[in-house]
Fold this sequence. Notes:
alpha/beta, 21% strand
Amino acid sequence: MTTITFDPAAYKDTTRAQWDQAAGAWHGWGPTLEDWLGEATTLMLDAAGVGTGSAVLDVAAGAGGQSLAAARRAGPSGRVLATDISPVILRYTEAAATAAGITTVQIRTLDAEQLDVEPGAFDAVISRLGLMYLPDLPHALAGMHRALRPGGRVAAVVFSTPDRNGFFSVPVSIARRSAGLGPPAPGQPGPFSLGAPGALEQVLRQAGFVDIGARAVPAPFRLPRATDCLRFLRESAGALHQLLAALSATERDQTWQQIHDELSRFERADGFQGPCELIVAWGTKTRSHIAPDV
């Protein structure tokens, strides 16, 4: 197996470029994403206490489906700041808000580990399928903690363990094997890096949050056929493209075929149903606190 020294700066540069490239496709899959992530998103917004008048910071917002959902809850007296490392994908968030007639969503290109926002300016911080990809998660959570007013709440969605997320863990496993890569080293970012029981709660606690809780949410990824899931992954899954980047075009095509063959076992009479389980975790910034060291 190949051992690669992890370079956080290079990793983030690659991530930014890949999301810039995949932004249009991710936006195009929006209805599918909201069907898939809808229950977890609702729980996240509930846990973050998003309601009428809320000021919400969305970290690693992507194409912003959850940003718009938060804005609808907050209403005209609230506001949402959607942030992401990719400026291209944020433009889709802005366009979607305009198309929906929502005027309270703003966008700002920000690295989640460098949240240059006014301290104490937000009632809620949310992040959907973003935290597990951050190389310096403690620094990011410290920034989220600073952004909240005392008593404000944070909530996030991540994938649970690989064995409960076959629709994505199977392709990742095949891609790593094709690239000659072993499992990621402990502490490295990746889709399942926060999936172990209690892992997300622990990092929230270390960041200074209290009243912490979490819930697992079954979220099967449903599409008509395995071929549709393969198309979704080829168009949208930056993590897979990172793994396959060093392969030749022929090797990549062969790997995608292997992924399709394995995904086909999740096809049923009523369509493709890829196993997926999400974790929603939350916490509160105390009204009297000492900021954690980072």
